[in-house]
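Notes, p. 3: input format for complexes.
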Amino acid sequence: MKITFLGTAAAEGIPFPFCACKTCEHARKEKGKNIRKRQSMLINDDLLIDIGPDLYAACADLGISLVELKYLLVTHSHEDHFNALNLKLRQRMFRLSTDLQELTVVAGPSVLTMWDFSGGKDKSAEIRRIPFSAGRQLELSPYKIQSIEASHIPSIGDAMNYIVDDGRVKLLYAADTGYYREEAWSQLAGLRLDAVVMEATLGTRQQAKTHLSFGDFQLMLDRMRELEVITETTPVWATHYSHQCVDPHEEIAAYFQSMGVTCAYDGLSVEI
Ligand SMILES: [Zn+2]
Ligand SMILES: [Zn+2]
Ligand SMILES: [Zn+2]
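Output follows (272 residues plus zinc ion):
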């Protein structure tokens, strides 16, 4: 399984244009891995998790085309994770020379409501929707998909994390979420994961039930190890950072390295 991080920031991005904090100023000056677009991740060339406002910029920067995309999994309806325009622009008139295969969109009711409200039409965007909710399973050949209940902003209601299994690697994509509720732990118990991508939005400066601080990130890993869902050597990537809560890339990368975790950055592509 190949994973490519298209964006590794929380909603505002880094640097956030309306912010002069240390992390944003550092990113403007140093650029490179300090520039973080809004979160999205590509699995192989055919499965995308989340489709936010920076999809165009990420693909342009990385020289990635999405013409092979078959599946889209959307975690929740926050606008940094679902931007309807990306799907509306799939319609024929914007790609006259390119035939696309149908895109299967797996999402909760709040995302599909946003899609409908945007005026998007499944037929013209050539999508097939699959309404989904936490605790369910689905086969999207060659993948097996499982959804885990996220602990996110209550008004979103139907936020999910996903487990994607390509037959060789079982990966958990845990964003956006705070420390899991017992319901989620019972959904995870008994599974053996080969890789984890998990949010670390709140760094060392804040704590909440709706996102993970670095401390809660560690507690999540501890619980997964206790349940034998992962081992000491399971690869883990941290992502979805808020500029207000984390230090520059070099500093948080060193912090995570000491935990045996890789600090993801935009454009990082790994074969698992
Ligand atoms: Zn987010
Ligand atoms: Zn800032
Ligand atoms: Zn969110």
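The chain has a mean pLDDT of 97.
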